[in-house]
Known about the structure:
The strands form two sheets. Strands 3-2-1-6-7-8-9 form a seven-stranded parallel beta sheet, with helices on both faces. It has a two-stranded antiparallel sheet with strand order 4-5. By secondary structure, the chain is of the alpha/beta class. The longest helix has 17 residues, at 138-154. It starts with 7 loop residues before the first strand and ends in a 15-residue tail after the last helix. The mean pLDDT is 91. 38% of the residues lie in helices and 18% in strands. The chain has seven helices and nine strands, in the order βαββββαβαβααβαβα. It has one domain (8-180): Glycogen Phosphorylase B (Rossmann fold). The chain has helices at 23-35, 82-89, 103-115, 127-135, 138-154, 163-172, 192-205, and strands spanning 8-13, 40-47, 58-62, 64-66, 74-76, 95-98, 119-122, 157-160, 179-180.
Amino acid sequence: xxxxxxxxxxxxxxxxxxxxxxxxxxxxxxxxxxxxxxxxxxxxxxxxxxxxxxxxxxxxxxxxxxxxxxxxxxxxxxxxxxxxxxxxxxxxxxxxxxxxxxxxxxxxxxxxxxxxxxxxxxxxxxxxxxxxxxxxxxxxxxxxxxxxxxxxxxxxxxxxxxxxxxxxxxxxxxxxxxxxxxxxxxxxxxxxxxxxxxxxxxxxxxxxxxxxxxxxxxxx
Length: 220
């Protein structure tokens, strides 16, 4: 029993979630899928997006606006969604895990502080580079990064998926503790004998000779 209940309720907060397909949205979905079980109930909290499919775990959506320019991303507006707060009041969160510092991250922080429960925040992206690409003004980019650091300094524990992300967060000015928590994968690597067979069958399927050079690109 956990707080008088059989399952621990963990809120996963992020600005994107499938059908928006980026690395973090897929990771959050994988995390919710892995956590969902007899001991843990994951609840994903994210801006509303057209075309979202049902999942085996609960998703709480809130009001959002489209971003100009054809991008699939949405601007989350949780403060203007009265139904959201009624939904959240009925969820007995035990832990909040924010995967960004935007509307969903600030919502997670607000819930955690009002309920006196712990909050973890993971820093995934190269936010300074991403912001500068769209804004092109150093002063605004610097302000954005300061807000980011303030957010991560406000949570109970900060995670990064690898050492490089930790160094990046340090370069932004964050000086607190950092825990490296790898994202993980469901994939299992085959043994060397199986690899040889896979390589051979893959070459045969596209008509490639054994010693022919291969270049593979994988991206979004």
